From TrEMBL:
Name of this protein: Uncharacterized protein
Taxonomic path: Bacteria, Pseudomonadati, Pseudomonadota, Gammaproteobacteria, Thiotrichales
Domain of life according to the entry: Bacteria
Native source organism of the sequence: Thiosulfativibrio zosterae
Length: 132
C-alpha cells in the first residue's frame, strides 16, 4: 500500500477526501464503506461520512510533494472503483482535487487511473485462478 509513504496527517486528509468522494454520488456502496473502514483501521484514523466541516481546500495543503499528491489521487481513484465504476461525479471530484494539487496533466491522471485498474484486474485474475 503506497499510503505507507504518507505522513499520518496526509493519511487523515486522504481518508477525509475519500469519505467526501464516496458520498459524491449520494450512494455509498458496501465496498466503498469497507475500503474506508479498512483504511481507517490500518492507520488508526477516524472518518465520518457527510462531514460538513470538511474543506477540500484545507486538506490539499498537507500534500507537499509530488509523490504524496500522486499517492492521494491513486487512493481516491481506487476508492472510486470499489463500487465497480469510476462514475462521473467521482471523476469530476478527483479531477478538481488534481487541479488543486497543481497536477493539471490529463495524461498523468490517465496513468494513475490505468495503474489502479491494472491493480484491480490483477486481484480479479488471482481470485478467479484460486477459485477454479
Amino acid at each position: 500500500m503506497f499510503a505507507n509513504r504518507l505522513t499520518q496527517e496526509q493519511r487523515q486528509a486522504v481518508l477525509d477526501m475519500a469519505a467526501n468522494l464516496a458520498s459524491a454520488d449520494n450512494e455509498v456502496s458496501e465496498e466503498e464503506l469497507q475500503y474506508l473502514t479498512d483504511f481507517s483501521t490500518a492507520f488508526g484514523l477516524e472518518f465520518q461520512l457527510d462531514n460538513p466541516d470538511i474543506s477540500i481546500d484545507d486538506l490539499v495543503v498537507v500534500f507537499d510533494t509530488r509523490q504524496s499528491k500522486i499517492i492521494a489521487l491513486q487512493e481516491l481513484i481506487k476508492l472510486s472503483y470499489k463500487d465497480g465504476h469510476f462514475g462521473r461525479e467521482e471523476q469530476d471530484k478527483v479531477f478538481a482535487i488534481a487541479q488543486k494539487f497543481g497536477l493539471n496533466n490529463p495524461e498523468l491522471i490517465m496513468r494513475i487511473e490505468k495503474w489502479v485498474r491494472s491493480g484491480f484486474d490483477w486481484i480479479y485474475e488471482g481470485e478467479e485462478m484460486l477459485s477454479e
